[in-house]
C-alpha cells in the first residue's frame, strides 16, 4: 500500500479540535445515565461498519472489548434490529446513528421518537458523537492508517 499523508502531523491543530470533541463526549457519556460510554462505543462501531472503515472497526471493536463489551453483542451489531441483545436505549441510539449516517434529514417524527427515548441532552450529545465518528471514518478511509495497529 502506498503511504499517505500523516494527517495528525500536517493538521495538528485541526486534529486537536477533533480530539477535544472526543474528550467532551467521553466526559458527557461517562456521567450520563442515558447514553453511556458503552452505548457510545456501540454507536461508533456500528457507524464504522456502515461506512466500511476497517481501521475504525478494528479500533472500536478492541475498545469495546477492553471496556467489558461481550463478543456476542459486537458480532450481533451488524444485525442489531433482529438480535435480542440490546436495551431500548441502545436500540434508540443505534437507530438514530443509522438514520443520521444515511444522511436523512432529521424530520419531526424521527426527532420526537429519539427525544422521547433519550432526552434532550443525550440527543444533542449523541448527534455530535454520530457526526464525529462519521468524520473520523472519512479521515481514516482517506489516509488509511494501518489496520490492526491500534492498541486500546
Automatic annotation (TrEMBL):
<protein>
    <submittedName>
        <fullName>Carboxymuconolactone decarboxylase family protein</fullName>
    </submittedName>
</protein>
<feature type="domain" description="Carboxymuconolactone decarboxylase-like">
    <location>
        <begin position="40"/>
        <end position="98"/>
    </location>
</feature>
<dbReference type="Pfam" id="PF02627">
    <property type="entry name" value="CMD"/>
</dbReference>
<dbReference type="InterPro" id="IPR004675">
    <property type="entry name" value="AhpD_core"/>
</dbReference>
<dbReference type="InterPro" id="IPR003779">
    <property type="entry name" value="CMD-like"/>
</dbReference>
<dbReference type="GO" id="GO:0051920">
    <property type="term" value="F:peroxiredoxin activity"/>
</dbReference>
<dbReference type="InterPro" id="IPR029032">
    <property type="entry name" value="AhpD-like"/>
</dbReference>
Amino acid at each position: 500500500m502506498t503511504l499517505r499523508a500523516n494527517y495528525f502531523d500536517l493538521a495538528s491543530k485541526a486534529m486537536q479540535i477533533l480530539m477535544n470533541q472526543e474528550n467532551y463526549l467521553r466526559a458527557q457519556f461517562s456521567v450520563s445515565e442515558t447514553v453511556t460510554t458503552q452505548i457510545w462505543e456501540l454507536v461508533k462501531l456500528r457507524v464504522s461498519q456502515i461506512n466500511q472503515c476497517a481501521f475504525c472497526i478494528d479500533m472500536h471493536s478492541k475498545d469495546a472489548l477492553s471496556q467489558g463489551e461481550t463478543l456476542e453483542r459486537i458480532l450481533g451489531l451488524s444485525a442489531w434490529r433482529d438480535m435480542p441483545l440490546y436495551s431500548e436505549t441502545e436500540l434508540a441510539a443505534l437507530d438514530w446513528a443509522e438514520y443520521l449516517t444515511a444522511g436523512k434529514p432529521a424530520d419531526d417524527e424521527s426527532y420526537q421518537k429519539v427525544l422521547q427515548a433519550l432526552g434532550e441532552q443525550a440527543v444533542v450529545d449523541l448527534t455530535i458523537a454520530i457526526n464525529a465518528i462519521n468524520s473520523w471514518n472519512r479521515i481514516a478511509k482517506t489516509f488509511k492508517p494501518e489496520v490492526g495497529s491500534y492498541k486500546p
